[in-house]
Amino acid sequence: MKFNVKKPLSVFLAAVMLLSVCAFFSAAAAETADPVGASFTVNAKSNFFAAKTETVTVPSGDMFVTVEYKLNAPKMSLINIDVDELTYDSAVLEWKEEYNQITVGRNKIIDFFPFAAEENFGAGTVKQTAAGRIIGNFSSVKPAAYAYADPSGPVTAVKAVFKVLNKNAGTTEVNCTVDTLSFCDENERFPYMKYFAIEKKTVNAENKAKATYTTAITAASGADPGVLPGDVDGNGSVTIDDATMLLRYLAEFDTPGIKLDRADTNRDGVINVRDVTEIQRYLAGIITQF
Hints:
Blueprint: H1 6-32, E1 39-46, E2 52-57, E3 63-72, E4 76-88, E5 93-94, E6 101-104, E7 107-110, H2 114-118, E8 123-130, E9 133-139, E10 155-164, E11 171-185, E12 195-199, H3 205-210, E13 212-221, H4 240-250, H5 273-283
Helix pairs in contact: 4-5
């Protein structure tokens, strides 16, 4: 009697291959699983600003990291800062305009030089972006009288918000290389006649006495930090439809898709009709930002 062993053998080999494939994908899934609760370290470096290392706990869901390079120069006016490049590992971190936008008036701007927007002076621009590299420049276009009003602490000179793409990396690095940074002394009779320039990676003793440079790192989870307050329908702009949707929500009507993380427009910790009023005031031009 002859036995046909080819068919059982082929079935056996197919089963072995299937188990191998399953094991491979199971291992890959385990390797790329979110390491919730694990440590993630960010190293922020610079040729001017102080280095800073911060270790945070990996959250579930989206994770964002903000790196801020700060200048503390009381009663000084910043004239120019030229960021030769801000580099990061694009396999671990992602920089997008939408993560780094704020609303000034009714316009969205990139918050790379935040003091230029918050103090409403000067002109800050991001000149070039590529994976892992950002170049930008800020130049003051107003008189030196527009100095820092608050001498109690540093102002953020350069800021970048990143989404963490690979939490399993465990560590990453951001490096800010500044080519030129200059500012003037408001105590001088003619401030622009005597200014303090830091160029080509050189900081002299007089400059060190006039300013200090620090770095801050913060991490956040959940909502994209670049979301627009008041945009409760999530369409990217604030319109009368947002006020209507919020009113419907407060009246307990069905409002699918409402973005409640953007609804507290007066920032009092409570979502109520006052937030609707703030949206209406914004649309009427009575206020320019939330």
